[in-house]
């Protein structure tokens, strides 16, 4: 019996020593695996595309509903009283109180502070710090998240160093999940015994008893199934982690790894992203109560989500607070105060891609710089020119406008979504080329084809100002053009341009040609000015499509891309300078180091005077020409614009600009079916609705003539310099200083007194 016991002890010792050696070797092997996994990039961080920031300054027009929408979009919440925390605002009887969030963008870091804005007659009258009263010349609101480049995991995460995570959150997490974290070595025997008892009692894995280290091992290295083999591996990996890393580093990795909930189809991982998702705060700014709320989520992120059940989340928070007091991390007074604090969360915003056509446009540029594996893993911050308020206004205006056209004309309705009436909008800052908005189609889900950047359509009369601009070295706005029926021989065939409506005038000035959009007078100008010379000069506009070498090209017979046409009109609005359309501004890495910085690129196309002459003539189309119906939509500020309609009504255009903003609207069918409407009836109302929704972007300033432009009194009948009082119909016309009319009116300059009196009386009745 004694011999048998001795043998049993010997076998047990050998087995124990062997088991210990095997376990040690296995742990040593796992240590290398853990080190390899943790020493490299620990997480795949999706790159984020942001909109532009929003500037507020005294004198800027303000539309409160739009500003409120903007504040909501970037996560601000309305407070009942004066805001005392970052990310809150309160509208007042004469303005706004706001506690700004921190702002970090390329080249700028601003820490949040309380501010007060006063409004007067629809503008910002003043801005000042609420704490010191110091006046503020300009405020910058944070950019909005437009898109994330997700990898396969679709995880949203902000990596935060452990020394930036507040102790209140660290203690809350340990109280909720592993209060003995700093005293065990990766495995808590008490927890294991408790779990073993529970699992044996139920005959299955019902309780984990896992430490933070075990949870980390499970998330990083193991599959989620509940088996004893997986549990054994979890224990060994936990020991390996504890052997290799300090407690603080393990806690830091855990707090950046753990799952905290769901934002649409993307998971919210890490304490940094949880703080942003639930409270719209940096993790450093969390209160004790907010830290306890986040810690309480780990046990069941969906079960205890305050977005799903506020009361259940509040009770779970208070359980965590009680545990924190029990463990000596907070006092009874702190627990009571935090437990009584109302649970207030940021408004839930599921992940959704905004401005999809614009983002496709930006993404195509990014793919030229980086492969998709970089964009989905290295956590770049990508800043763009998009203004979300302008984008939303453009999307709304296009959809409403197209629906209105379909409602008014049943011929335009289509049952097949892919064959429905389409449209495109481009909105630019004309002097910088910044793309503020881009709508490439009616519904991105139905069609991803970006009509704003890829559709090739005939521009119709919208091309007339472009051609006229390159002929201003030979013509002045008052020069007369033939408006009579004329035959031209083109490639051996006779071609006779027709006007949209028959005018009685046999001659029209260049100004009136653009005002009423006369086809015959436009062709006369091109033919007299020289087709070859005009084609050569048009190259400076950088159209991506060829311009046909025929006289009909002045009528918009050649196809253009909407973005190219918008860029051409930007020349008129910016003193003859053509900006390159800018959408991508800066790319910075996760350490805020600038990788790519793109800035304004410009080409000189026209002189400032030539650009102003076109602008002045296009103002005439709005005042009493083809664009005069703008006034019916409440557009009462200076606008230069042109309508465009193609043969058989296949395309409708409207391009209009102010000194501050340029917007292009196109309407048509992809298959070139007629839309039975003109630019003035189909595209113009959409433009008007868009611009009317953006009062903060329109200063109302008039277009000012540059130094190389002078004013001369001209006889309307002859188009020449007026002969004093002899001419009955005289008006002020703009001219290039280098090209003023030398000739005095030949019609009235030598007229007799009786002739002049007769013409004067006739003029009264006409």
TrEMBL record:
List the catalysed reactions: Preferential cleavage: (Ac)2-L-Lys-D-Ala-|-D-Ala. Also transpeptidation of peptidyl-alanyl moieties that are N-acyl substituents of D-alanine; [GlcNAc-(1->4)-Mur2Ac(oyl-L-Ala-gamma-D-Glu-L-Lys-D-Ala-D-Ala)](n)-di-trans,octa-cis-undecaprenyl diphosphate + beta-D-GlcNAc-(1->4)-Mur2Ac(oyl-L-Ala-gamma-D-Glu-L-Lys-D-Ala-D-Ala)-di-trans,octa-cis-undecaprenyl diphosphate = [GlcNAc-(1->4)-Mur2Ac(oyl-L-Ala-gamma-D-Glu-L-Lys-D-Ala-D-Ala)](n+1)-di-trans,octa-cis-undecaprenyl diphosphate + di-trans,octa-cis-undecaprenyl diphosphate + H(+)
- A GO cellular component entry from the record: membrane
Alphabetical list of InterPro entries matching this protein: Beta-lactam/transpept-like, Glyco_trans_51, Glycosyltr_51/Transpeptidase, Lysozyme-like_dom_sf, PBP_transglycosylase, PCN-bd_Tpept, UB2H
Q: Does the keyword Transferase apply?
A: yes
- Residue limits of the Penicillin-binding protein transpeptidase domain? 423-689
Indicate the segments annotated as coiled coil, or none if absent: none
Subcellular location(s): the record lists: Membrane
What metabolic or biological pathway is this protein involved in?
Answer: Cell wall biogenesis; peptidoglycan biosynthesis
The protein's predominant localisation is membrane
Task: Give start and end of each Glycosyl transferase family domain.
Answer: 150-325
Keyword Cell wall biogenesis/degradation in annotation? yes
Q: Which residues form the Bifunctional transglycosylase second domain?
A: 56-141
- Its Gene Ontology biological processes? cell wall organization; peptidoglycan biosynthetic process; proteolysis; regulation of cell shape
Q: Which domain of life is it from?
A: Bacteria
This protein's UniProt keywords: Carboxypeptidase, Cell shape, Cell wall biogenesis/degradation, Glycosyltransferase, Hydrolase, Membrane, Multifunctional enzyme, Peptidoglycan synthesis, Protease, Transferase, Transmembrane, Transmembrane helix
Family in the record = In the N-terminal section; belongs to the glycosyltransferase 51 family.
Per its UniProt record, what PANTHER family does this chain match? Answer: BINDING PROTEIN TRANSPEPTIDASE, PUTATIVE-RELATED, PENICILLIN-BINDING PROTEIN 1A
The name of this protein is Penicillin-binding protein 1B
State the organism of origin.
Desulfoluna spongiiphila
